[in-house]
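Batch job 17 of 40 flagged for manual review because the log was empty.
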Amino acid sequence: MKKMFKLFTTAVVFMLFTMFSAQAQYRFGVLAGANFADVVGDESSDNAIKTSFHAGIGIEGSLNERYSLTLAALYSVKGTKSEEISDLCVDINYVEFPLAIKYQLENGFGFWVGPYFGILTSANFKFDNESEEVTEQFNDLDAGVKLGLGYRLKNGLGIHVDYSRGLTNIDHFDNSDLENQNSVFGAGLSYYISTK
């Protein structure tokens, strides 16, 4: 995980250096939407998709007419719920940093792919209108790959859908060999303004 974090940090520094050194056109924005989250792996047989949300800010720097680099800082609620017991679920909350390379078409559609890195802020087990904090049962860091597509109007308003798949184990149970990862479909709106 430390090696992955170093690689991600290097990529972020490279992105920012490239954007500023190339005097690229920057766009700053806000984005928010729904998460359709699940946990996949050794404990996923009784899982169902849980609806939650993500929200945050982003920066986008154009490399040329078609390609750009994007970086966002999001608060993202992941987790899962029980398929058999409707009010049983777990919320796993992260501050997430997705980094992506984006290809933009002339008609407003765009496609992107890249890594994400998440820092756990809290986790809560919920059942029968009661909540129990279970943060210590999850690893502090999460990392994976995110890909998406979207459509943006010329005024900066856009819509996006994406999918992120965790590549690291999120469980932190003592004396356990369980391996589970986050899996999230997202959909939402964004609004970006240009600096030029």
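Reviewer: the log was empty due to a logging misconfiguration, but the result itself is present. The radius of gyration is 18 Å. Unflagging and moving on to job 18.
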